């Protein structure tokens, strides 16, 4: 739900519709700065867009995966005979049938393709079945007789340090001891806090599905909603004992991805079954299988101690951060690096001592989810800032203003913030924005009260709270990750084609690619080729990568084609190609002597170019947590307004006012949608989204027990300011948009609930009892 204010332009603000950002002029029809519609929007709204769950092939078989009912157990025996004997069953595979490497992983190869001797989490794959009907496949999977010796699970990450190792690599995934400044420094005022962040699930709108088709050369093609198809290809090929070129991954429509779908989930068992049977094999997971089969946000325990002087200036931040990685390493080392590096937030801190650990447990695996690491610490350090303000008797906004970071300051990792960091400007914008009106005390507006008309208690028990939060995320990979993407732009007459393996996950890359080519070449009709692994790799779709790296590659390739187009024309008139411009479909010279249309010059021609984009390198954090680990940073400030029924603990988020550092607005409509989606996901993490796990077992893995925010729960999102201070090292100067609202929103909601109730609110999601005031 979005308020009308989102289209307004407050002082220093940026319009999001009807005008080009910052100009007051009419928004362009094409190119960068235009609200170009997604090319696949009509098909998606009409229900004709092909997702993996919709695919079909002649002779199709169906697959099902048998998953462990235990979080920790030794496998005594596996008897597949009852399943294989069932009519319609074509193949049953276990760890004994894995022809290649037995383990895989995106960062650390510690996860077995099928559990061999031990199961380490509830839902771990044991076996897979192919049959001629999906019900037969599921019944056959259930008929596989597995004898387990149940073991005591390690589910408390604090006890994982001393517990028996659940994995040959041990229970410790990574430890980062960050030391910055003087460890002995102290402040006049000290506040401490203990914070807990729950297990958020990506909960994609469409569950995992895929189709594998065997090839005549002994290879296999996999059709699935991958966000990193080349890594999926390489990992699957290794497990199958094939060369990478023998496995082709074709990306189908992605039915929602919030930086997830990077896990190798159903790809390997499906490909193995297709090769074993010689038939196409399809799987379409139900919601329970989806919850058990993919990774979640890291549950986190955080202990903090903030030191400040009497005027509220930070002196030192001490923190201990413990991430529950679950059974396998996955992206936990990366999430920990972000958590430790951003443990003090977007504030200037002269001294810091932060220890971060990621440990294996028998809980469900944790992995990549928007703002991993950064979201957890944001909730904690902003809680600390509110505590510090209360102890000093200061306004929470004023305290933050005295400590905010700016360009040129140092992170606790010792890295200089070289990108634009307009944190103070963002905070001022949300503070000065008008507050929403109070709800009217009338029957027809009872739905405005917490709990709605059927659940609201006494309107006199409702308290309004206003809270503020600041946060930051890093863009692209970190700690030496080689970020590179390749793109090809081809122009044939009046039509341009873009080939880039950057997956469209809903972030709008395919639309951005069209806009870039329109801007550079003046060609209006631009098509983006479907993604598969026959194309050069572009990497995963996370942390704003494709806007920066893949968009940069498309821009470079388009500019090379532009040179091919303009050079002959410039030579004909005895001038340099740099003196010619392309705008509104016309080519003109600086002096106006030459004026022609792009269409005329492209007639009968076919031009193409391939280019790469690789940002400047980063380095791993050293033994004291120091190093230039990040390519760039993005910031946001959010003011949350909530109404709390302090007798029942019901909470309604009334409004989220957002000011964000975006670098440059490339597509106003898409940017607005990304901010709204990020805020809503953050509100879910703050209030409702927590995957319940008891002694390692996922309880009620369905959307009934895992409530997502609906349209009625989503608050009004007021974008009060977008700061377009371009990052000079980023293509177009644009920054990551969708992750930072996810990071900041939960902290802002928690701050608002604290303001309404006076309660500490140190756990996310916020439980009703935490919002109840004592009588």
Automatic annotation (TrEMBL):
Which portions of the sequence form the region Disordered?
Answer: 1-41
What superkingdom does the record give? Answer: Bacteria
Pfam families named in the record = Ald_Xan_dh_C (PF01315), MoCoBD_1 (PF02738), MoCoBD_2 (PF20256)
Record-linked SMART domains: Ald_Xan_dh_C
* The Aldehyde oxidase/xanthine dehydrogenase a/b hammerhead domain, residue ranges: 46-152
- InterPro entries given in the database record: Ald_Oxase/Xan_DH_a/b, Ald_Oxase/Xan_DH_a/b_sf, Ald_Oxase/xanthine_DH-like, AldOxase/xan_DH_MoCoBD1, AldOxase/xan_DH_MoCoBD2, AldOxase/xan_DH_Mopterin-bd_sf
Indicate what this protein is called per its UniProt record.
Answer: Xanthine dehydrogenase family protein molybdopterin-binding subunit
Q: Which organism is it from?
A: Streptomyces desertarenae
